[in-house]
Design goal:
homodimer, Rossmann fold, 6-stranded parallel sheet, 4-stranded parallel sheet, 12 helices, 12 strands, 44% helix, 15% strand, DNA-binding, DNA-binding (chains A, B), transcription regulation (chains A, B), DNA-binding transcription factor activity (chains A, B)
Chain lengths: 344, 344
DNA sequence: ACGGGGTACGTAAGCGCTTTCGTAAGCGCT
DNA sequence: AGCGCTTACGAAAGCGCTTACGTACCCCGT
């Protein structure tokens, strides 16, 4: 019988439907071995009673986990919040809840968050963001994730290879290549890169694309100015100051993500450097505000929301023998922040 | 004895420490009735074994819940992602996990999310965003939350009154007043408002502040043009088109949040309307990108991250007899998007 | 008519923890 | 010495669910 003011339990449902606990459980979990007639009756009663399974009891008893953990570098960075939006959308459709953590781009803290999530016994873990150049961190993360998967956990990564798990991967190198090629087609030869932290694989990959484009067109990598900051607007501002001071001949700045590009544009504006008349600027990611900046930003579009959904989709499928990879499309979006190199 | 490849359980800790399960549990939960000597030994063993309590078992057994649910309108809106960042920060410091949901500003869907969270037995619920004008929805939400609190749940709201729970509240009316006053001090008399959906309490409050400033200075509310859209960049763009077409005499646009203000600026730029020479623009919230826009945005600063932290702090305290309220400061930040009204 | 095999369902044993209750030991008091 | 009181700890009863196993029952072939 129902207890005053408490949520109904499975026993209540079972009694009202005139079946045993086991049958009620099977019926609601959609497991076989229950006649459709009985199953329908149980589901009906459950609906009437407003019954919702207690996830703690279910998980403890060894049933399916209902929560997915999501680790991102920074939630208030549009790149990650758009990915998170995709994950959360799909999770809601599936009746899953999303536990979100941020690592602040600190590899050790991220590892700690990961362990915490595993210790909390979430069912699925999604890791989004760059990998780290530090082989120790990557190896430890790999090991934790492998053990987690061996105990039935499911994992997928977004934008991170080398973790030994399913992953959705943008082609950072091709994107970097396309940006540099676009600038060179406009006549730019003095190009500077506002790069994120040197320890991130994303930075290395995008940078590799840029240098390959230069090499392809006969420039030497030494002709390229690379300034490392971090993947934030502030990082973009600092990088721009340095570029302006140390390499005044620069005619184009490649920011390796849009957040930095916003900082670059902001600093150029306050220094009264016309964009793109004097310096062209490109970003990477196409966060949604990129189109509304002044000037609007030429960048590489990555389908962030879809990437989040795809990652969860991968994690929802049964584990495969070898890690799956999904490449995401990317597209050069030319807007107003790039123009022909100035003819000195 | 430990089982191969499995996380250690409390029994393992208890055995190694030479105490009973009950004592081990008490020691780790910091409950009294355990000598400091024994408690230290248990904690030491737990650390050695890498023991972390199984939250499902703990919750099922009636112990403390360790997860906080956070409902926001939209995760990829900087206003909410900055609030979320604050909540997540503090939660991480407290060893709590954050379950995040988005409502898409749909009152019924939000109610559904709320029920889902309650059914999932999270311990704490934080609701962020505007309330709705619809009395039915608000009443239902109140009722759900009241029942939740009666069963030991904890709740706090951000930017929402009328829910009968602890809340942290920006003074939207004073902010709206300050914006309008600033514009009128600059000589603007033809002011238009790009407002969010008419059904949101935040919109009504900010708008009330604007009209009170006009009235205070001898203008009639009828002199004010109000266009309703939604609280997004797209909403700002649409509102601007309408204002420009139907009220070409307008010299200042008040966007009721920064997202709309970005859309307003973007449209004015593509229509080649100089800001602030021809039209001044103000926003509300001071999301972090506001300072990096071109022109940088005059707006009301709300301490979003701190608001998130404060809300969680409120929810962490024991429930008080009557709902607590924390007012948040706000500050008019004057930047480059506002200037003297053009002298026609 | 009878045994074998499959299907539908019930019984009961946990999952790993918290907490109530009970007990033994130690204390001060008369 | 005997009493009650407090303190430190252990035994065991669940929390609400899933699932291995057991038991009816029915359909089939012979």
């Amino acid at each position: 019988m129902p207890r005053a003011g408490q949520r109904p339990r499975l026993v209540e449902v079972a009694e009202r439907a005139g079946v045993s606990l086991a049958t009620a459980s099977r019926a609601l979990a959609g497991r076989e071995g229950v006649s459709t007639e009985v199953a329908d009756r149980v589901r009906l009663v459950a609906r009437e009673l407003g019954y919702v399974v207690n996830p703690y009891a279910r998980t403890l008893a060894g049933g399916a986990r209902s929560t997915v953990g999501l680790i991102v570098h920074q939630v208030d960075d549009p790149y990650f919040s758009e990915i998170a939006a995709g994950v959360i959308q799909l999770a809601a459709e599936q009746g899953l809840l999303v536990q979100i953590c941020q690592s602040g781009r600190d590899p050790d803290y991220e590892l700690q968050q990961l362990r915490h999530l595993i210790a909390q016994r979430v069912g699925i873990i999604l890791i989004s963001g760059s990998g780290y150049d530090d082989p120790r961190v990557e190896a430890e993360a790999r090991a934790e994730l492998a053990a987690f998967q061996d105990h039935g956990g499911r994992v997928a990564a977004i934008g991170r290879h080398a973790l030994g798990v399913d992953a959705v991967l943008p082609d950072n190198e091709a994107g970097g290549h396309a940006l540099a090629a676009h600038l060179m087609d406009l006549g730019h030869r003095r190009i500077a890169v506002a790069a994120g932290s040197a320890g991130l694989t994303t930075v290395a990959d995008r940078l590799a694309g840029v240098t390959s484009a230069l090499r392809q067109r006969g420039l030497r990598p030494a002709d390229l100015t690379v300034v490392h900051g971090d993947f934030t607007r502030g990082g973009g501002r600092a990088a721009t100051e340095q570029i302006l001071n140390e390499h005044p001949e620069t005619t184009a700045i490649v920011a390796l993500n849009d957040a930095m590009a916003i900082g670059v544009l902001s600093t150029l504006r306050s220094r009264r450097v016309p964009v793109p008349a004097r310096i062209s600027v490109v970003g990477f990611d196409d966060v949604s505000v990129a189109a509304d900046l002044a000037p609007s930003l030429t960048t590489i579009r990555l389908p962030m929301t879809e990437m989040g959904r795809t990652a969860l989709t991968l994690a929802l499928k049964p584990r495969s023998a070898r890690p799956r990879r999904r490449a995401t499309g990317h597209l050069l979006v030319v807007r107003d922040s790039t123009g022909p190199a100035p003819t000195t």
